[in-house]
Every structure is written in C-alpha cells, then in structure tokens.
Amino acid sequence: MPDKHKPVPVPAAAPEDPELTAVFGAGGAISRAIKGFEPRGQQARMAAAVARAIAARQHLVVEAGTGVGKSLAYLIPAAFWAARGRKKIVVATHTKALQAQLVKKDLPVVKAVLEEQGLPLTYFLLMGSSNYLCLSRLARAGKQAAELFDEDGVRAALEELQARAPGAESGCRQELPFFVPQRAWEEVCRDADLCLNKKCPFKGACFYRKDVAAAARADIVVVNQHLYFAGMPLPVFDAVIFDEAHNLEQVAADFMGFVL
After folding, report:
1. Other C-beta atoms within 10 Å of 115: how many?
2. With CB atoms 3.0 to 4.6 Å apart as the test, which of 166, 206, 208, 237 could cross-link to 132 if both were Cys?
3. Is residue 28 part of a domain?
4. What is the pLDDT of residues 72-100, one digit of tens each?
C-alpha cells in the first residue's frame, strides 16, 4: 500500500526538454516578457540543473557570475514544478533589496511565462514581524503621544498612522506611502513578545496575521534568511531556495549557535 506521506517527485524540464529550451531560447517566452532579452547559455544550463535537482529532491549549490540571470534561472523551473504539482517553494534572500527585485521585477516575468502555458502562479512576500504595524500598539501609543513624545516628527507620524491605518491594505513599513521615523516605529511595530495573539481585540484586522495567511495560499513565498532561521510561522513548503547563499553560514550561526 503506498505511503501517502511519501513525497512523489514531479517531472521537471531536462536540458533537452523543448519547453525549457523555448523559455530561455531566442524568441522564447522570456524574450516576449522582457524587451531586449538576450539568451545566455549559462542561464539555461543553470535552469536545467535546478529543474533536475528539485524533481529529484536533491541538494544543489550553484555559483554564477554577474549577468547570468540567476534569479530567473532558479525561479522559472521552480515555478513550473510548484504550479504543476501543487507544491510550495520558499525563496530566502539575505537583503530586502533582492526581495523587492524578486517580487516587483522577476516574479511578474515568471508569472507571464507560466500563463503562456496555461499555468496560474501566485507569489507573496512575507516580512519579519517587526516590519508590520501593530494596531493594538498604535492605539496605545496614540493615547499617550502628547505626553510621551516630544519630537514633532514622532507625533506627526503617529497621527498619520492613526488616520490611515483603518483603511490600509498593508501594514508593512516598506509599503507605507509616508516616512515613519524609527523612534515612532519602535512604539507601534509588532513585537512578538508583547503580542496578545488570539486575545488581541484587533486580531481580525491584524496586518501580520493577514500576510501569514496570504503566504500560506501562495505557490512561491519570498522571505528573508533571518526570518527563515528565526523560527517564524512559515507555511509548510516542499522546497527552499537560498539566494545570496554566501551569507547563509553567518545567518544560521547567529540564530542557531551560542557562545560559551
């Protein structure tokens, strides 16, 4: 009797697979999605290696120079595998700059490539919890703003947050349409140690909980390496890709090591 818990590999594109060749080749799907795209042999070979490794559930380490197009080389085969097999991929970067590039530039291209094949794809950026506005802390800080905060910039930011928060789609600091001084943000950001969780009166509107739920529904979830090792509530996933992996050892040591 088959073990229902045993992972079943999903076939992925091999180097000679016409689908993968068409995507990365001249006049292929990427060319139609990116104006001026020039095919690169290294990029196609890396994509093939990633596809084989994911399908076989094997580890793979890739070192490639600048200009190879590494992001698309791992995202496209991973996305095909995820979309066809109902799998979830976590992509962990070291910097927020690369996170933004993946979500705003590269993943829209990947989505367009898959849609040409009739495959839907969803992706989501999940930030660390301190990047999110906490409505409970905001309410508390707003009541104390006049007494506790002397700086005009801090008070003004708190007032702006209170005015905009009720109708905001995102409480992520990076997506706020105005600058919030660090002093103000420290008073209103989510703090895991202070979170009331299910007892919080704002739990139904919690920006962080909404994003965690959205990440659980996505095919590809982009996170920070620090978030990955911090034990935050990532959704169950089937494969992980570490970009900027030369930083991985130090990040892992920071979270998993200790000093005697």
Report:
1. 14
2. 208
3. yes
4. 999 999 999 999 989 999 999 999 999 99
Q: Residues 224, 242: one domain?
A: yes
Q: Is 19 exposed, middle or buried (0-12, 13-18, 19+ CB in 10 A)?
A: middle
Q: Is the pLDDT of residue 64 over 50?
A: yes
Cβ atoms 15, 48 nearer than 8 A: yes
DSSP letter, residue 219: S
244 found inside a domain: yes
How much is the pLDDT for 232?
73
Q: CA 147, 149, 152 angle in degrees (round to 5)?
A: 120
Please give the angle made by the CA atoms of 119, 120 and 125, to the nearest 5 degrees. 135
Task: From residue 233, give the alpha-carbon distance in Å to each of 1, 91, 142, 215.
Answer: 33, 15, 29, 10
The model's pTM is 0.84
Question: Alpha-carbon distance 82 to 189, whole Å?
Answer: 33
Residues 111 and 41 both lie in one domain: yes
Q: What is the DSSP letter of 60?
A: -
The encoded tokens of residue 179 equal: 């600058």
Look up the domain containing 114 and give its range: 18-122+218-256
